[in-house]
């Protein structure tokens, strides 16, 4: 390329044009666009957050602002926009801007090309839960996807968040990066990171941190109470170390466990997890073990789902939700690994590991939905069914990937070990997915790619195993557990007493049916949830301890019930049955062969044969 000098007249014209641009636009090199949030909680007793969103440098005629309809990690529509109140739009000088709400979660602001837009609105909170924002007199839980709007087309834009705590509150716990020199101020490189980084505000307690692979791990929470805190941190360090040993890499700068108080549930994030927690969970061996399983689950999610992820789970669709057939991998295999990680960390014994898996098998096998719904369907339909399947009478038509997912993962693990002479395992599948798709390709994997990785590791076709995923084929427990020299008791045993198949509660002197077992005598007679039992054998139902009375009868006995069903009184005659149950107890075989013993030992310890 050759360079030629401008003629003088052209130079003058260019300078005039440059001056015109500078005076008309405020500078040729306009200030870069910015997004800044301020969230305050002036009257926490009202349960209302005040949000200020300032956008600079966009200069569009109109801008659409959206509130997400869900938060990643909780696969249900939550429609956060319904809690937005007192919405206002202003220019940078405080002059009101016209706006309209164009659908349930979108506000269109007519900016007339103004470079500065300020939104003010309130968010009313109602429920203390990990997947919803919450504020009360003692703490504020800021779930970014439930309080911060995003400009359409700007999800990749960085933002700054300033917290204005209630006057007496001193602490903020979050995985967001702090802005140096600015108290309670944090920054995010994009909205995906922002929405993945909850904040807990209040007078919080922080336990002494630990390090793994040079990375700091913190535990910060609300009203932690009294328990052996040193022991908990030592146990968490063992869980983190076992997880890092499994994958072979630690991807974050630091990690924070954020305990938000009593309740139920937890949600995973890239470098943090938020979860409900009380000191009562630490004060007996059984509940403490459940808590460690739970924390291992949420921690391991930073690998499995946040980084080892189905391709549908990122970039996220905050407007519609992100459906996938592969939640059985993201959630079900994480349940499986929460058990294995505790065993490998020395925090549970062999019997406790087998008992945890036995409970999963029983929970799955006791659901008639196993004959109707596949793992793929349960994964995809969780948006309508819920993570644990449908409720009410429809519970009989669905399963939970939390039940079947870990079982299928176990079958994969033992089968791969068997096929490879215990030289490979499901661990190799997880490591390969992490290395190939997260580290190398920096994307999620498809269903076909997941299957290919499994079959490449196994060295053969795994059609039998994938039938457990894509169909309702019965799982051959005996065959797969035999690979590790394990026996499972599948014999059906008769439960003493008669069986009707209902669960009841007493409400205002009425006996109300709360659940009916599928295909039980009660089900076959037409009884359903919410029916009210008025009489039993011509006597008022409230006069009987209903459950005990059934058990005192013999199978084949006749019982006459008068019930109120959908506002109509009915008389039903039922024949009590007998119930058969399986224990699914899992025990080592006394005469296991050499390879079976090697597979069992390798599985328990997280090792493979050389």
TrEMBL record:
Pfam families: PDZ_6 (PF17820), Peptidase_M61 (PF05299), Peptidase_M61_N (PF17899). InterPro entries: PDZ, PDZ_6, PDZ_sf, Peptidase_M4/M1_CTD_sf, Peptidase_M61, Peptidase_M61_catalytic, Peptidase_M61_N. Signal peptide: none annotated. Residues 487-540 form the PDZ domain. It comes from the Bacteria. Transmembrane segments: none annotated. This is Peptidase M61 domain protein.
């Amino acid at each position: 390329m050759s360079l030629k000098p401008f003629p003088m007249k052209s130079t003058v014209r260019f300078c005039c044009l440059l001056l015109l641009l500078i005076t008309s636009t405020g500078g040729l090199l306009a200030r870069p666009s910015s997004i800044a949030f301020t969230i305050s909680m002036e009257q926490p007793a009202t349960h209302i957050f005040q949000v200020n969103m300032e956008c600079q440098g966009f200069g569009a005629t109109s801008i659409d602002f959206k509130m997400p309809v869900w938060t990643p990690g909780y696969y249900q529509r939550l429609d956060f926009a319904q809690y937005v109140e007192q919405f206002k739009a202003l220019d940078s000088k405080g002059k009101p801007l016209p706006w309209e709400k164009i659908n349930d979660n979108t506000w269109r602001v007519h900016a007339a090309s103004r470079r500065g837009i300020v939104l003010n609105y309130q968010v009313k909170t109602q429920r203390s839960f990990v997947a919803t924002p919450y504020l009360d007199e003692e703490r504020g839980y800021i779930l970014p996807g439930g309080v911060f709007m995003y400009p359409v087309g700007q999800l990749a834009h960085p933002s700054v968040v300033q917290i204005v705590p209630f006057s007496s509150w001193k602490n903020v716990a979050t995985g967001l990066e702090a802005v140096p020199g600015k108290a309670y101020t944090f920054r995010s490189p994009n909205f995906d990171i922002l929405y993945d980084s909850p904040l807990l505000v209040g007078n919080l307690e922080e336990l002494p941190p630990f390090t793994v692979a040079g990375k700091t791990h913190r535990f910060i929470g609300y009203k932690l109470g009294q328990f052996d805190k040193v022991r908990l941190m030592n146990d968490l360090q063992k869980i983190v170390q076992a997880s890092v040993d499994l994958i072979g890499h630690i991807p974050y700068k630091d990690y924070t466990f954020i305990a938000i108080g009593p309740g139920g549930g937890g949600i995973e994030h890239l470098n943090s997890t938020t979860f409900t927690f009380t000191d009562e969970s630490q004060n007996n061996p059984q509940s403490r073990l459940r808590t460690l399983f739970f924390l291992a689950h949420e921690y391991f999610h930073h690998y499995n789902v946040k980084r080892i992820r189905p391709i549908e789970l990122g970039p996220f669709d905050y407007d519609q939700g992100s459906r996938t057939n592969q939640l059985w991998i993201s959630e079900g295999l994480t349940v499986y690994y929460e058990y294995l990680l505790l065993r490998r960390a020395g925090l549970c014994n062999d019997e406790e590991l087998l008992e945890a898996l036995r409970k999963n098998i029983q929970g799955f096998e006791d659901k008639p939905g196993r004959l109707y719904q596949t793992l793929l369907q349960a994964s995809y339909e969780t948006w309508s069914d819920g993570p644990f399947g449908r409720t009410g009478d429809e519970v009989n038509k669905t399963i939970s990937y939390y039940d079947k997912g870990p079982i299928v993962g176990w079958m994969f693990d033992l089968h791969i070990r068997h096929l490879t002479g215990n030289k490979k395992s499901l661990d190799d599948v997880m490591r390969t997915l992490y290395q190939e798709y997260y580290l190398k390709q920096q994307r999620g994997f498809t269903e076909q790619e997941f299957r290919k990785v499994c079959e490449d590791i196994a060295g053969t076709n795994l059609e039998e195993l994938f039938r457990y995923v894509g169909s309702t084929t019965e799982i051959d427990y005996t065959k797969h557990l035999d690979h590790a020299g394990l026996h499972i008791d599948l014999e059906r045993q008769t439960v003493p007493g008669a069986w009707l198949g209902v669960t009841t509660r007493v409400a205002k002197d009425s006996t109300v049916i709360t659940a009916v077992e599928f295909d039980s005598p009660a089900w076959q007679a037409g009884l359903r949830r919410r029916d009210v039992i008025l009489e039993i054998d011509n006597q008022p139902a409230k006069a009987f301890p209903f459950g005990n009375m059934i058990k005192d009868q013999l199978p084949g006995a006749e019982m006459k019930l008068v019930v109120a069903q959908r506002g109509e009184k009915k008389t039903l005659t039922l024949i009590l049955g007998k119930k058969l149950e399986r224990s699914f107890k899992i025990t080592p075989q006394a005469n296991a062969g050499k390879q079976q013993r090697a597979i069992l030992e390798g599985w328990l310890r997280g090792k493979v044969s050389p």
